[in-house]
Amino acid sequence: MATIYDVARLAKVSKTTVSKVVSNTPYVSEETKKRVLEAMEQLQYSPNLAARGLKGKRTYVIGLIVPYHAEHLFHDPFILDIVLGVESTASDYDYSVLLFMPKPTDKRGVYDRFLRTGYVDGVVTLESHAGGIDDTILDELGIPRVSAGYREDLKQINSVHSNDRLGGYLALAHLLELGHRNIGIISGPANFVVAVDERLQGAREAMAEWGIQLDPALIGYGDFNVGSGYQVAQQLLEREQRPSALFCMNDRMAAGAMYYAHNHDLLIPADLSLIGFDDIALPTIVEPPLTTIHQSPTEIGKTATQHLFALINAEIESFATITLPVELVVRQTTAAPYARSIHMGSSLK
Asked: HTH lacI-type domain: which residues (predicted)?
């Protein structure tokens, strides 16, 4: 790989002169500048990020603010796929990504250390629990910013997310069309910003079309991991009149509910129908394969980052929220209620 010294040697100038050409410093003659640029092209020399930053007054780094504990981040395939979309798009633009994971107790300090010091040209933020992203500080700093998810301040600008309300509607409509009426919901955290509320609202709208009200007692709150899905399934399925179906707001909690069913001799879907949300790799691995709502986290990350670069490059001043489509993927965990008693003549559990 060519170095700045190789360029200087070929162009017959000093290393300092090469640095001046790279950073577009004045007082370098056009003839000298031409020789240096030709040498750089011949040697396929790429200036380092610092030099490029001096030239274009940029750092060639974007920030990714993920307000989760590391254990949550690195165990959640959905979040990792968003990160993949951000990183791959940044790479296409020859940018690096700097990951921020602010703690609630030191949020101001993280923003001051990394954002106020000019380390990044823009940031992508991920939706989080309430209080995870400080929109006030970001607006105050004036750094180009796009949300991969919903903005905590609920402004309908510069954000990219899935159609969560439609996803909730499709999930419940599918179960209702199969004949289920006693339906439990394993929700995400009650203090999640917007996505959970949107999915619940879609579920309510579907049930209203069938003349049914969503019973708050049939909603349990997990934290998106497998263990919480197991625990909430236990709460709901040990009721005197257990639900015939569960709508789980992500696939990992659906897997937890499936484990509970298997451990308590409930056949899926004969005794219990399950539907998840996300369509990560998991639904095709578990047995039986999981019916779920498909969304595209990698596309969320890519679209958010593409629009961040449009903001950085002053191609746009802002953009209206982009809502990406979702779809129902029917596999083998949903069927008419209590199919075992109908088809096998066995008693209900």
From this structure: 2-56
Q: Which amino acid is it at 320? A: A
Tens digit of pLDDT for each residue in 36-61?
989 988 988 876 555 555 455 678 89
What CA dihedral angle connects 55, 56, 58 and 61, to 10 degrees? Answer: -90
240-283 tens-digit pLDDT? 899 999 999 999 999 999 999 999 999 999 999 999 999 987 77
Least Cα distance to 164 among 127, 210, 138 occurs for 127
CATH of domain 61-162+298-325: 3.40.50.2300
Contact present, 232 and 257 (Cβ < 8 Å): yes
Q: How far apart are CA 59 and CA 313, in angstroms?
A: 13
CATH hierarchy code of domain 164-294+329-344? 3.40.50.2300
Angstrom distance (rounded) from CA 148 to CA 152: 11
> DSSP secondary structure string, 202-228?
HHHHHHHHTT-PPPGGGEEE--SSHHH
Identical topology for domains 61-162+298-325 and 164-294+329-344: yes
Is pTM, for the whole model, over 0.90?
A: no
